[in-house]
Amino acid sequence: MEMDEGTGGRRRTAPDVDMQRPNDARVYDLLLGGKDNYETDRQLAQQVLKVAPEMPELLQANRRWLAEVVERLLREAAVVQFLDLGSGLPTTDNTHEIAARVNPKAKVVYLDNDPTVIRHGQALLADDRHSFFAEGDLSDPAAVLANPIITGALDLGRPVAVIQCLVLHHIRDTKAAREIVVGYLDALPSGSYLALTHPCNPRDGSRRAEFATGVEEKLRLGFKAVTFRTPDEIATLFEGLELLDPGLVSLGEWWPSPTASPTGASHLIMAGLARKP
């Protein structure tokens, strides 16, 4: 791709967008009410909604969790640097907008390798001097942390909050997912944080497991590598880190509700915030 010299390397020409296959960022955005999608995305979203009609509300809860965590880190931990990996399409309350409400000088770098996300992210941040968009593969921490956009925007010698919201389920092997997390946190100083959400399937024969399996199977129609993990498997992603209250719990437990979902959808996504000692 060609660099736009007039923007100091911040903007690039977006690559061709594949409209023939569903795209995880577009499907996620569609379920949140977004309009940047194609027929193949709508078909997959409808398949998911057949088994999980609560999915839009659950994804909204995931966004609400992200907002709460970013504000908490800014107010309580004085973290002012955020690296949002696999950020997806711009939607309501993006990470940099949340951060700016608390500290206008907070730095946010988004990273994605999706053509649609790249195009929209660059347009959104074209005139923002505290938020940046880097193109890259989150599964290669060394390359990501050497990206000149990231090294130019963030001081990697100071604490950074690494955000991985609903991205690691696209890595089939749990050991590989763990190595990705370690690759980032090992390279960052003490006082850095991991903010992570991940789809969960207890695989214990319960009704909750049956529901999770149904969602997982529908998503695999478009994304073959999709892998939900058990609570114990997700917990391995936080090894060596100090989990903050309320620990590693489902979104349904993060904000307990007196009305339980009949399908257990509120327990489909687990969330955790942890500090590197």
TrEMBL record:
Report whether Transferase shows up as a keyword of the record.
yes
Alphabetized Gene3D superfamilies for the sequence: Vaccinia Virus protein VP39 (3.40.50.150)
- Extract the GO molecular function terms from the UniProt entry: methyltransferase activity
Q: Name one GO biological process term.
A: methylation
Q: Which InterPro entries does the UniProt entry name for this protein?
A: SAM-dependent_MTases_sf, SAM_dep_MeTrfase_SAV2177_type
The protein's UniProt keywords, in alphabetical order, are:
Methyltransferase, Transferase
Pfam families listed in its UniProt record: Methyltransf_19 (PF04672)
Methyltransferase as a keyword of this entry, yes or no, is yes
Note down the stretches annotated as region Disordered.
1-20
Protein's name in the database: SAM-dependent methyltransferase
